[in-house]
């Protein structure tokens, strides 16, 4: 995943914070999900979702003065990281009216543009103060998705992050908001656009973005392992584990963070590229898309299995398999058609061969590969559900030819049918303002327990 710039366009700019306020009540929308032991034998869990802190209004603790306006901090309230954390409070969210987030039963709909808000990122909660933690070793994760209204340049992403369960409250006493207000995000890009990390603001060294009036880059980033179960629009999709030296959330400094937000992409302790399986990129150009084998004009089910070397939850992750179910038919993932790369699942052998075939840096191996992902699952990972556009690369890495200075016939460059001039946020936010994604019927359980494998 290349970029997740939080974009918000309110006159009162909404950003991340560590303390909390109550000018707007924070009421978490309910979302049910299931745990399964065998097909048809599932238990319903009454979960909730919470909006990420980077989308929220941050204001003075004892009033309503913005701590952050446009893409700059208030110099009086936020002269430095520690003072800003003490002076500023994070407020509650109007989920549907302001952010276009609608939760009904087991279904979560995310609208792309709602008023002046663009996109959203949410986390599954176990209770109002803690994220739901997942260990997927020798388990499978299944959900239904509707991407029919996601054009080129948009990414409806469902993935897992090495965040901590309480959002960092126990670790950092200055963090008063925690999971209740969507605090503590991290991923393999070590994002530096976050307004608060580890209980302090990211004010010092803050540089406003040149191509966004609402975002900027601070001196600190937030790193962790990331399991991209689903990054997709109606044109392309990718399944991508990202390894990390330290799977759980850690703070980094400056360009040593690496990733999208730094001058040296591979300088950090995480794997920003990951080992991806994108059917189009792997040579099957008719598998996923409108009216193709997996028909993105209608809803379908996505099944991801995390197999271990000994077939138990105590083993080490050895293979990530993908199935789809649509119209009652189970569809195995497409096979690789790239010379020198075989299979239709993610294994160490697949990743090593792919990096060679595409002449890509093998950061996945460098940072621990599937063993690192195993450690991340043992620590517990948080489920993230989002919809966003890409101010860094226009999502061309997902659905077009990328990098754009290489020929489309070069192995690994072609990732989808979108033109290389597509995905520009200003254009997408205008032309596709009514876009949305729906995630529903989330199920987690034993291998082959969450879907009808014999269909």
UniProtKB/TrEMBL annotation:
Q: Tell me the enzyme class.
A: hydrolase
Entries under CDD domains matching the protein? GH7_CBH_EG
- A GO term for molecular function: cellulose 1,4-beta-cellobiosidase activity
A Pfam match is: Glyco_hydro_7
- State the coiled-coil residue ranges: none
Q: GO:BP terms for this protein?
A: cellulose catabolic process
Keywords, A to Z, come to:
Carbohydrate metabolism, Cellulose degradation, Glycosidase, Hydrolase, Polysaccharide degradation, Signal
| Reactions listed under catalytic activity | Hydrolysis of (1->4)-beta-D-glucosidic linkages in cellulose and cellotetraose, releasing cellobiose from the non-reducing ends of the chains
Q: Which SUPFAM superfamilies match?
A: Concanavalin A-like lectins/glucanases
What Enzyme Commission number does this protein have?
3.2.1.-
Classify the source by domain of life: Eukaryota
* Signal peptide (residue range): 1-17
Annotated family:
Belongs to the glycosyl hydrolase 7 (cellulase C) family.
The molecule here is called Glucanase
> Which source organism does the UniProt entry give?
Hyaloscypha variabilis (strain UAMH 11265 / GT02V1 / F)
